[in-house]
């Protein structure tokens, strides 16, 4: 195994679950998310020599994944928000037992958010550090904290609306 292959394997193992989760958040579909995961890491492999350590490698990979997902959504002419709602809700409903219905509902609520809000809250749920989220999303950490607060408020509103149904 070459040095590049060993480094790539380590990078993949450290980041693949989070990137899959991110891709799933965009598509609401396991197969599409797996395809986007593979496409993301193909780009990582192809550009690994160009990575300059100016940002954390995970930040760089997130950016590649976000761009890959956005390109996919544009090329498929999908309105992710409209398609995600039934797909995520249905998929999550099947996956979670009754006691975990709240988690399924959370995913349904997340699917109703704007695209930029979905990526931010997905990273928050993945416990990505705020400075890294700010770097990936291209906004200051102060603005990020305000945005996260508003996203959480919006999720609470959405959650409460569903709870009443």
From TrEMBL:
Record carries keyword Cell inner membrane: no
Ranges where the RNA polymerase sigma factor 70 region 4 type domain occurs: 105-155
Superkingdom classification of source: Bacteria
Residue ranges of coiled coil: none
Keyword Transcription listed: yes
InterPro entries named among the record's database cross-references: RNA_pol_sigma-70-like (IPR039425), RNA_pol_sigma-70_dom (IPR014284), RNA_pol_sigma70_r2 (IPR007627), RNA_pol_sigma70_r4_t2 (IPR013249), RNA_pol_sigma_r2 (IPR013325), RNA_pol_sigma_r3/r4-like (IPR013324), WH-like_DNA-bd_sf (IPR036388)
Swiss-Prot/TrEMBL keywords: Sigma factor, Transcription, Transcription regulation
Annotated ranges, domain RNA polymerase sigma-70 region: 12-78
Similarity annotation: Belongs to the sigma-70 factor family. ECF subfamily.
Full protein name: Sigma-70 family RNA polymerase sigma factor
